[in-house]
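Support request, please re-run this one:
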Amino acid sequence: EEKRKGFPKDFVIDLGFYLILFGIFGARVYYVLFNLDYYLANPSQILAVWNGGLAIHGGIIAGPITLIIFCLKKKINILKAMDLVVPSLIIAQGIGRWGNFFNGEAHGPLTTLKYLQDMNIPEFIIKGMNINGNYYIPTFYYEFVWCLIGFVILMLLRYLWKKYNTGQLTGFYLLWYGIGRLYIESLRTDSLMLGNIKIAQLISILFIVS
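Re-run finished. Output below.
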């Protein structure tokens, strides 16, 4: 796609390096800021990412900032670069959600075995959602499926909109992910909060409006 859209050679490799680096940094800073009381009391844990604590919205915020700076330096069209990146971003988000499954986190409220079976949830996920004898709604799986569908649509749009280069794919991504996350976050029991407001839902609304 880099070649097809006329980007400089190795643009994706060079940009990807910085996006991954600063994306992880942003995801950690975001998480720490919204759990500041804990980290002020335990400053040695701020860098302990191996204990968990990466918030995807922090990465989504840091990513575009990094991309804008990189494109300005290279004199590349920013919206065109964003359209290049977003299909990879949404499938990466979907894949990343499986980490929540393996860690037994980011799930929804208590539910029943029958409910999960009636929802046609794969058996191995149902077993994984049996935590300490209780079944939980696998919100990670809902988001994975939503991101996967969004990825397929974005790839179709990429080849249907031959002349995209002004943020069309980015706009669809913001709308699609915002709608899905707004609903899915309403089910989660471990959301980052600002008072009584779930931060992820607030950002999702901003995504939809933008």
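DSSP finds nine helices and five strands in the chain. The chain has a mean pLDDT of 92.
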